[in-house]
Amino acid sequence: MKTTNQASPSKKKSTPSSLFDSFSIYKRTLPYYRPFLSKIFFCLTLVVISVGLNLLRPWPVKWLIDEVLLKASNSLGTFPVPVQNITVMVFLGCFALFTIYLVHSGLTLIINSLLYKIALLALLKLRTDTFSFLQYLPLRFHESTQSGDIIYRIAYDTQSIMTLFIRGVSTIFSSLLLLVGTLVVMLKLNFYLALTALGIAPLLWIVIGVNTSKIRHKSTQVQEKESSLLSETSERISAIRLIQAYSQEEKAIASFKNAAWNSLNTNYDYLLATNRYSLLVTLITALGTAIILFIGAKEVLNGRLSIGQLWIFLSYLASLYQPMEQLSYTSWTLESAASSLKRIFELFDIPNELPDPPKGIEIDQVQGKIEFRNVSFQYNPGKPVLKNLNFVINPGEHVAIVGPTGSGKTTILSLICRFYDPNEGEIFIDGVDIRKMKKKSLRQNISLVLQDTVLFNTTVEENIRFGKEQATPSQIIESARRASVDSFISQLPKGYKTIVGEKGVFLSGGQRQRIGLARAFLRNAPILLLDEPTSSLDLKTEQQLVSSLLLLMQNKTTLFVTHRLHAIHNWKRILVVVDGKICEEGSGEELLRKKGVYYKMWMAGNFSSLTNSGSFFEKTVPL
Ligand SMILES: Nc1ncnc2c1ncn2[C@@H]1O[C@H](COP(=O)(O)OP(=O)(O)OP(=O)(O)O)[C@@H](O)[C@H]1O
User: Fold this and answer.
1) DSSP per-residue string spanning 103-133
2) Coil, strand or helix: which one is 614?
């Protein structure tokens, strides 16, 4: 069977290329808001009431000016109401104004808290979906994507789903409603003035049209630079030990500064562009206001308009221009949100090159027979790593894989775990092609112990439990005991509840490996894959670890990849892999007699002196 390697994830820029593109992104956010439809409609009803109150705001002042103040000042003494009643009328006007503001503010508070809660819940779901999706993406994706970029997408890009909702739904709806309401009232108040006020609209739309795509592009650049800065930071901080050991602090700082400067320049560029844009919008609306003031003042002087009417008109003018401004800013805010969300949805669009078959076979516990049939594999086109591999490992058999560095040993283990699929050939476990098995079912039958055990920044107990989620505390202690790490853990300040630090920094390499073995004991899977589990340890620690390894290997099909020939020399079956092919096979002694690759490696490593003092596995395991 032939398959092709999947292309690595898209590195192309994420700017939505057209309005249609942006709309398709907006559409993809709809499912995140669908559960809240009734709440959203409730909010929008409140928005309608709030806009109505907004439109009422200028009227108490207009009434005060025209009906009370002007009349009172023009006809002192002849005003039909007594002076003390004028005070009551002034009070009533002010009270009405205050009440309108009070109810409007209260409504705004309720609307905002409801809308933000809905938006935050949508954000939570999008973040969870993104993280979950990434958990199942094949290794090939993670190997070719910077972790900083992924973190940026999950932490920051996802927030645009809130922006889209708050600005897109609430702002657009309330602004449009206010705009239309204001326009209707203004046209009724003074048709000619209202049309003049609208005269600036085309100018505003031209400015928006010209600037939106520029700002959208700059916003994407900001996201990319911020994402690189985060990647740079996370890479350098996680490599701090190496940086300090090689005295590379200055170089790391220089590299960070470079990324930070890039981010600063693009941010500054973006800020300048948005400020220029805001300035233009403000100037256009100021021009509109000045024109209306000029014409309105002349109308007042000619007696065709009262001062109160001019005042109310100017108030409405603000209510007309403010939503216009809001809408213009919203357009590029939405574009910028669309480009961030595109970076999320393009993750969802990455096809899973290693899908579970529709009716995948589930096997609770395999016997452990492994067969490679004509398996060839390459990570990158034109660079074959494994070439037509054929071998069978029987249940419970222990096989060592040795060979020069880069010959493909780890790749063999990766294929068994189905981290990748072979380009040609098939791999069978208990006679079942592993591509027909459910990946979860396959992997729960495998324990993988690596050269460096990966630990999480949590308790020892939780780190061991990683091997079997539903393990009881006593099973965890028993596994630790079998990995000979129980007494060490008991001496820790909080025993099994001790936090091990990020990547287990508070523990030694040997202690980390033992916790890794405890995990494997707990998992107790029938297939054990050991990828140089002792290579990073000194000889003494390696010797101490070996008895635990032997216990772990009992009754399990074991593949042991190692460079330490003394550790496996007495095994009955050793595969020697060179350049992606098995070139020799046999026991250590048989291979030495062949005087081939194994012999050369043996001599080069000066292992004979070690074996003479006793191979680690020699006395204990009848392999
Ligand atoms: N994720 C990857 N992407 C691309 N190439 C890879 C990847 N992993 C390994 N390779 C390449 O595949 C080849 C085989 O690598 P592999 O890790 O299987 O070798 P190995 O025999 O285990 O080496 P070592 O003994 O040094 O651990 C090497 O040339 C390596 O550069």
Assistant:
1) HHHHHHHHHHHHHHHHHHHHHHHHHHHHHHH
2) coil
- The CATH number that applies at residue 244 is 1.20.1560.10
- 218-233 pLDDT, tens per residue? 888 888 888 888 888 8
Is residue 490, in this structure, part of any structural domain at all?
no
Phi, psi for 619 (deg, rounded to 5)? -85, -25
Alpha carbon distances (Å) from 452 to 156, 200, 303, 476, 479 = 32, 67, 89, 21, 19
Tell me, yes or no, whether 374 and 227 share the same domain.
no
Q: Whose CA is nearest to atom 26 of ligand 1?
A: 405
Label the pairing between strands 574-578 and 581-586.
antiparallel
In-domain check, residue 250: yes
Decide which of 168 and 581 is more confident.
581
Could you tell me if 85 and 206 lie in one domain?
Answer: yes
Minimum-distance ligand 1 atom for the alpha carbon of 408: 18
Q: Ligand 1 pocket test: which of 143, 376, 385 has the largest number of ligand atoms within 8 Å of its C-beta?
A: 385
Q: Are residues 42 and 177 in the same domain?
A: yes
- Give the residues surrounding ligand 1 with Cβ less than 6 Å away: 143, 379-380, 385, 403, 405-411
Distance 140 CA to ligand 1 centre (A): 13
The residue segments making up the domain with residue 600 are: 370-445+525-612
Instruction: Note whether residue 358 is domain-resident.
Output: no
Size of the chain in residues: 623
Residue holding tokens 């204001």?
182
pTM assigned to the model: 0.75
| ipTM of this predicted structure | 0.97
Residue 98 falls inside a structural domain: yes
389, 409, 575: residue to mutate for ligand 1 pocket, most atoms within 8 A of CB: 409
